[in-house]
Design goal:
- It is a single chain.
- The chain is an all-alpha fold.
- The protein has 2 domains: 54 residues, Orthogonal Bundle (Arc Repressor Mutant, subunit A), CATH 1.10.10.60; 122 residues, Tetracycline Repressor, domain 2 (Orthogonal Bundle), CATH 1.10.357.10.
- It contains 10 helices and no strands.
Length: 192
């Protein structure tokens, strides 16, 4: 007879996401996970597979969080550039209290070995998704006359994507928050 789980796997996955986000994959041990999650090692393996499987599930959860997606912000009717500026400003803002600093996607990219195809695939999927959203928004901005007609929306979307990811890296230093705010404030100047 199978035992009934004495924990909520979704809640445990959320706590695993937070731990991986805060510490990274390499420095998070199985012992760290067992202690932080409050479940037995056997339960961790039975429910999530190994550490790498749990990390992939945590990364998927992170990228699926509604507040981590620019979709809603960029799809609002009306002028597009204020929405893009708001998105950039959110990347430059300090994290809410109790939230790990930085971005789990950026952390994964920085720490991921070249041969970790599963993580690399997730990173590319996430970045492509954001790039497509930004391109769509910039096409709308161009159609509405908010940006110059000669601006290449796809190329500028890539620029914004790289800038946003870089802002997450830079903002982790003492002077980084001001650098990120300055970058966010000047990013759209090239469009006019």
């Amino acid at each position: 007879m199978a035992r009934i789980k004495e924990f909520d796997p979704d809640e445990v996955l959320g706590r695993a996401m937070e731990l991986f986000w805060r510490q990274g994959y390499a420095t998070t041990s199985i012992t760290d996970l067992v202690e932080h999650l409050g479940i037995a090692k056997a339960s961790l393996y039975a429910t999530f597979g190994g550490k790498h499987d749990l990390y992939l599930a945590a990364l998927d959860r992170y990228t699926g969080l509604p507040e981590k997606s620019p979709a809603e912000r960029l799809a609002q009717p009306g002028p597009v550039l204020p929405a893009i500026q708001s998105l950039l400003d959110s990347y430059a803002a300090p994290p809410p209290a109790g939230t790990p600093p930085g971005c789990m996607v950026v952390n994964a990219a920085v720490e991921c070995p070249v041969d970790d195809v599963a993580v690399r695939r997730r990173l590319d999927l996430n970045w492509t998704s954001v790039e497509v959203m930004l391109t769509s928004a910039l096409l709308r901005a161009r159609a509405q006359g908010e940006i110059r007609a000669d601006v290449d929306p796809a190329a500028f979307a890539r620029y914004l994507l790289v800038l946003m990811q870089g802002m997450q890296v830079v903002s982790s230093s003492d002077q980084g928050a001001q650098r990120a705010r300055d970058a966010a404030r000047h990013a759209l100047a090239a469009l006019s």
